[in-house]
Design brief:
- The chain is 20% helix and 30% strand.
- The chain has a domain of 130 residues: Nuclear Transport Factor 2, Chain: A.
- The protein has 3 helices and 7 strands, in the order αααβββββββ.
- With 208 residues, the chain is of the alpha+beta class.
- The longest helix has 21 residues.
- The chain starts with 77 loop residues before the first helix and ends with a strand.
């Protein structure tokens, strides 16, 4: 299965949740005898359960660090458009690793098919309790130009590092050992200090 921004891996997992309930405990009534005066029973100490050592759904190993927002993210212009496109793509491996899409969605425009597919992929991974390790990107040949006022077309080459899919315990589910180079075009819009991605298109992809 190919990985990354070329094909979004659909990890489908059905989780069966099973539970058990115990019967209600009925205390025996205290029946004092007439021959003696009942003595007070010693209080029963209920054991306090210790915290479970099993990792929770939010425990993840080697999560990709959250990318730093560029200082130009509230500015317009072609240079700012290029920086916004790179930041948006940096949020992609971060979302697959942290399973957090809030920042990614804040830059996703309505109707962006690529954006929606990433959010859906992250949701599937969260349900399957898997996440990505690695897969960070660097960029070259970044070219941005304004098509109409406020709208910018950005083309670039995204160099994605090797990655792997791991489960909640850190065991490898799937490995992607190669560095890939993907040629992409992004359509961004700037309005009132905010960038949104209208669409992201993969032109081609190859091993580095």
């Amino acid at each position: 299965m190919r990985r990354g921004i070329v094909v979004l891996a659909a990890v489908v997992c059905v989780l069966a949740l099973a539970g058990c309930t115990g019967g209600d405990a009925v205390a025996d009534p205290l029946v004092p005898t007439t021959a003696s005066v009942p003595t007070a029973s010693a209080p029963t100490t209920m054991p306090i359960p210790s915290p479970s050592a099993t990792p929770t759904a939010t425990t993840r190993i080697d999560v990709v660090p959250q990318p730093k927002r560029p200082s130009t993210l509230t500015q317009s212009g072609e240079a700012a458009a290029g920086a916004a496109a790179r930041y948006f793509l940096d949020l992609y491996p971060y979302a697959l690793s942290s399973l957090s899409t809030s920042e990614f969605e804040s830059m996703s425009g309505a109707g962006c098919v690529f954006c929606a597919s990433v959010v859906d992929d992250v949701a599937k991974r969260a349900r399957a309790e898997t996440h990505e390790v690695g897969g960070t990107m660097t960029y070259s040949d970044v070219v941005a130009h304004e098509t109409i006022p406020g709208s910018y077309l950005v083309s670039l080459s995204a160099h994605q590092q090797p990655s792997k899919t791991v489960d909640r315990n850190g065991s490898t589910v799937e490995d992607f050992p190669r560095t890939t180079v993907t040629e992409m075009t992004l359509l961004l819009h700037y309005k009132k200090g905010r960038w949104t991605v209208r669409e992201a298109t993969v032109e081609s992809s190859r091993d580095a």
